[in-house]
Design the sequence.
């Protein structure tokens, strides 16, 4: 079996890729980077070696980051904010049949766990902003803008059960924060209000308490099995094992 490099896994086995960051959030300006995120499916046979495939790959392009499918699903089931937002990007660059199945599972990953994970992430960002204000007299305004966006997205997810990452009509008010045109006390008050509204939404959320782990696992098992049955080295042995025959059995 020819060795697979991390770069070739992304190049040859990506099932879903999208644009994230400011462009996906509807907050891009002329100097915005293009952040690309993706999911690749490492061939099943690679897991039968001592050296396992990577769980993630940075690159090969600038501002590009990809996760192996299983790792991506694990993080999504834990309601990792970055992963959930990646699943809901409005800017999909490529998707194959496996990727379409993954996108069809978006609802299976959503649960009230999002309240805890989004809140924990928001608290971490808020502490950094408060430290900047104490040290430098002002926050990093771009980070303040994105925290407002995150708090709004989390509140609306808990209220409606739907994750929408494009800020829509909030674009100009958020960009005003990024430019430093809104006084910090006003920004701080907006953050506090959004946090309170998120707490209230969590108490009445239509989201289930837990994600649908069984449904996601069934998808992963089917996908791994299908990969194992693809033509390649050791075909006879691999397909015999996958179909339930022992090695050497007719």
Sequence:
């Amino acid at each position: 079996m020819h060795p697979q490099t991390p770069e070739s896994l992304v190049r040859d086995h990506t099932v879903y890729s999208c644009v994230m960051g400011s462009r996906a959030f509807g907050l891009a300006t002329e100097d915005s980077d293009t952040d690309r995120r993706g999911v690749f499916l490492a061939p099943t046979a690679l897991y039968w070696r001592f050296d396992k495939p990577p769980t993630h790959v940075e690159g090969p392009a600038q501002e590009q980051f990809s996760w192996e499918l299983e790792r991506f699903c694990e993080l999504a089931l834990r309601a990792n904010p970055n992963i959930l937002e990646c699943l809901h990007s409005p800017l999909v660059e490529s998707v194959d049949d496996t990727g379409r199945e993954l996108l069809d599972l978006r609802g299976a990953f959503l649960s009230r766990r999002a309240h805890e994970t989004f809140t924990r992430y928001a608290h971490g960002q808020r502490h950094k902003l408060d430290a900047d204000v104490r040290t430098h007299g002002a926050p990093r305004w771009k980070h303040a803008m994105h925290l407002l966006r995150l708090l709004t997205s989390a509140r609306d997810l808990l209220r409606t059960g739907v994750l929408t990452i494009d800020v829509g009509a909030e674009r100009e008010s958020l960009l005003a924060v990024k430019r430093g045109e809104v006084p910090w006390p006003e920004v701080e008050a907006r953050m506090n209000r959004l946090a309170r509204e998120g707490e209230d939404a969590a108490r009445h959320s239509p989201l289930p308490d837990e994600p649908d782990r069984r449904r996601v696992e069934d998808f992963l098992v089917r996908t791994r099995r299908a990969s194992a049955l693809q033509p390649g080295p050791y075909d006879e042995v691999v397909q015999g094992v996958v179909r339930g025959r022992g090695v050497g059995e007719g």
